[in-house]
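Re: weekly structure request thread

Next one in the queue (582 aa):
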Amino acid sequence: MYTRKNENEQLENLLSQYFKTRSFFPYGAVKDDKSKFVNDGSTYRQNSLVHQKYSKLKSPIFEFNTFCSMTSLHGFSHFVENNFNKIGKYFWAIILMVIYILCGVSIYFLIRMFSEMPAIISLDNSVSSIWAIPFPAVTVCSANQVRSSVYNSYSDINITDYEDQYGTSIHTLLKFIHNTHLFRLCVLLDRFIQNTIHGVCENNPINKNWKSYDDYLDGSFVSQVLKNLSFPCKEVVKSFFWLRKMEIDPCNILFQETFTPYGLCYSFNMMPMRDLLNGVDEWSQEFNNYSWKKYHSSWKPDTGYSSDALTDHLPLRTYGDGDYHSATMKLELHAEDMNKECAHGLEIFYILIHSPAEWPSRSHPTLLASSNMISTISIKPFVLTTAKDLIPWDSKIRHCYFQNESKLKFFKVYTKNNCILECRSFSTLSQCGCVPFFYLRMKNTPVCGPAKMSCWVTASQASSDSCDCLPGCTEFFFKTSSMNAQLTESVKKDNKSNPASSSLILSVYYQSKNFIGYNRILTFTLGQFMGNVGGIMGLCLGFSFLSLVEIIYFLTLRPFVNFCNSKKKLKKVVPTHILREE
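Done, posted below.
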């Protein structure tokens, strides 16, 4: 086999002959008397190897042929095979280029997916107990938002008695109670100005000429009057059972007043407002004397319940399913004292199911329950959590916020729904100069009057699309299904104090004592990412870490060694130029 050692021995023999003759230059040229070089063919042929070796020693470069014969990468050995002609080598080079390009494109998309979509949502590997999560919040809204007895009593009000106290005329208030798109709070015109008291509860603000009404109303005054027009909690929630145990005073401990698009509502199992709200809004400042303001929550969305959490701390939780582990309440509509015109004759309740960490809104699952019925709502929870491996990633890339990453003005707890509500409030205030009565607002912020209804409806719809509200990294969703049955006559007759009552018996419970959660996890760990890249390169190129070492060796160490060796050999090969004498 022809080796480099044989080549060196042959070179040394030729050099020995060359120096013995000392008649020719290393390139086989002879100089005549006219100082011209004359070529001697035999000597030129003999010294051609000297020329080749000398050239190689002068320029140590990356030895492509040697690399092709030694590398473990697929396809390169064909470039140095003797049975491959030039056309075959060119064809093979094109094939390799195409494969390398496809491999590079695949790796590029893999890197792009890893950097832009680092998280995916997958099912948990195991089931979880519902004891680990809170019972959902249940918000009850009666369609009877305006009591006829109070409504009619406004005809006897002396306006001047209230103008000094509130700094505004009572007729402004009476004109205010408008349909908020929602349910049907009346627009009342003061009889002392219009000589008529009538209620208007239109769904579409375009159908009414609102220009004759006021633009802005006093927020504190509006809240107080709405409370006076509506039934208090104790008149709506007549009785309450938690886990088959009757609560003595549920409205004082378990229910909290909330304003929603449906009017004044009562929310069960919502986080205490001192833990849910920052306390800068007018609502929490105005009603901070309520007993539930003394309670603290032992639960947070990201961390769950604390180790020392008591079973009677809000939000409540249960370990079982079915009716035995339910929240059951008897609700009274008071149809005998209902403003039929304002309620459009609907004797119903609006039941909103939502996370205890969220303020109730129309975006939550809402069920309609008629009076004189028994209604059961079974709930299936969906819990989305986020792996801690995603904490270092930017929130815009992982598409969620942890609690310490995004701070809201009104809320202590970040959720997407809370963020949207706050965004709508500030956006509506910016565009209309006021907010609807059911939006959280800063103290002394004007409430939109009937004349501004069209403005805030448009602003609210537009702001929903412009709000940059990412989901929370821990979110709770609830899927509901309901069943209804008519109350029997015997049950109605048992209510001797009010035979004409219009009651609803509502029961809410979990479908199952276990659930399968969802988890937001890394699309690839670092090891999985390297495995995917290595798999593509191994499949297309036969690439491995050994191949990488080979490339580094041939690009760095081998040229350096060749360069050093060439310097040593060039010192030995110093040809002497001798001219032939005549």
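The first strand starts at residue 29 and ends at 31. The two ends are 45 Å apart (CA to CA).
Next request, please.
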